[in-house]
Design brief:
With 296 residues, the protein is an alpha+beta fold. The chain is 15% helix and 42% strand. A hairpin with a 2-residue loop joins strand 2 and strand 3. Helix 3 packs across helix 4. The chain starts with a strand and ends with a helix.
Length: 296
C-alpha cells in the first residue's frame, strides 16, 4: 500500500520523508532500508487512537501462519481481569504481558512510502502489525506518531513477558476430542472454498495477539511451503509443509479444523462464518474428513 512521494524524486530518501522530518532525530533509527521510530509502551493508549487512521491492514502472525484484514481498526477495550484487551467486535484479543516493544516503520518502495506500526514480543518477533493503506488518513497517523515518539533503540513496556501458549485465549475454540487429518485436508479446504466462493472464519494468533477474520476467498495459491486463500481485503497464509498435525474437532454445535506446529502450539483454526448453516458446514467438513482421515 504505497503513499506516493514527490513524482520528480524516483528514489525518495528516508531522511526526507515527511513523517521522519517532523520527528526528533534521536527517536529515529535507520536500519535495513527502513526508518524505525520508537513508541511509548502504553498499549491501551496506542491502540485507542488507531481507529482514527481509517482503513488499515491489520495483521497477526506466528511462525507458520499470517492473517490479515483491510478495514477500519476496531475499538479495543481493556479487560478488568488483568493486562488484556479485546476488540468490541470480537475480532481481536490481546495479552499485553507478552508485548515488549512498539515502533512505527517507514520504508521507501519505488516512488512511494510504506508506513506501518509493529508490536513485538520480548524476543523481537512481530506479533501484531498495522499497515497504512491508500485509504488511510496519513495526517492522523503522523500526529499519532509525533505524540507517542520515544527513543527507537529502547524496548518500552513490560520486560517480564509471560511465555504461555495462546491456546488459553478464548478465541482459540478449545474443546475435547479430535480426529486427525492428513495435512492436505487444509489445502483442499482452502482450494475448495476459493473455487466455490464460500466463506469461512480464520483464526491465527500467538502469545500476545489473536485475530479472527471472515474470508470469502476468490484466490488460492501455493508457493513452496506456503498456501494462501483470500480476496481483495482479507487473506490467510499457512506454512503447510511444516505443520505437525491437522485435526477436526467438535466445538459446540459446529466442527472446526485446527493445525498445530511441531511444538504443539496452535497455528490456525478454521470455523464457520457468521450466521452459517451449521448442518451444511458440518457436512462439508465431515466429507473432507472422510477423504483425508489419518485416524486408525
Amino acid at each position: 500500500m504505497l503513499h506516493r512521494a514527490d513524482p520528480n524524486d524516483p528514489r525518495p530518501a528516508l531522511a526526507g520523508n515527511p513523517l521522519v522530518a517532523s520527528l526528533l532525530r534521536e527517536n529515529v533509527r535507520f536500519a535495513d532500508g527502513r526508518a524505525i521510530i520508537g513508541l511509548w509502551g502504553d498499549w491501551n493508549a496506542l491502540l485507542a487512537e488507531i481507529p482514527a487512521f481509517g482503513k488499515v491492514l491489520a495483521i497477526s502472525r506466528n511462525s507458520h501462519a499470517v492473517l490479515g484484514l483491510i478495514s477500519e481498526y476496531p475499538e479495543v477495550d481493556s479487560m478488568p481481569c488483568g493486562p488484556c484487551g479485546c476488540a468490541v467486535d470480537g475480532s481481536l484479543e490481546f495479552d499485553f504481558t507478552a508485548w515488549a516493544r512498539a515502533v512505527a516503520v517507514v520504508e521507501a518502495r519505488g516512488s512511494g512510502w510504506l508506513y506501518a506500526v509493529e508490536f513485538s514480543d520480548g524476543s523481537g518477533e512481530v506479533i501484531h502489525k498495522i499497515c497504512l493503506t491508500e485509504e488511510s488518513d496519513f495526517e492522523a497517523f503522523r500526529c499519532w506518531v509525533e505524540l507517542n515518539q520515544t527513543l527507537a533503540g529502547l524496548p518500552p513496556g513490560c520486560g517480564n513477558s509471560r511465555r504461555s501458549s495462546w491456546l488459553e485465549n478464548s478465541l482459540m475454540l478449545a474443546a475435547a476430542g479430535a480426529e486427525l487429518l492428513q495435512h492436505e485436508a487444509l489445502r483442499v479446504f482452502f482450494q475448495m472454498t476459493a473455487a466455490e466462493r464460500s466463506a469461512f472464519r480464520a483464526i491465527v494468533g500467538n502469545d500476545g495477539a489473536v485475530q479472527a477474520v471472515q474470508i470469502s476467498p476468490r484466490i488460492f495459491r501455493r508457493n513452496g511451503q506456503w498456501i494462501f486463500a483470500g480476496e481483495r481485503t482479507s487473506g490467510i497464509h499457512v506454512r503447510i509443509e511444516r505443520l505437525a498435525e491437522v485435526f477436526l474437532q467438535n466445538v459446540g454445535e459446529f466442527l472446526a479444523v485446527k493445525a498445530c506446529d511441531p511444538e504443539g502450539r496452535l497455528v490456525c483454526a478454521v470455523a464457520p462464518p457468521r450466521h452459517a448453516d451449521c448442518r451444511k458446514w458440518n457436512a462439508t467438513l465431515r466429507e473432507l474428513a472422510g477423504n483425508f482421515s489419518s485416524s486408525p
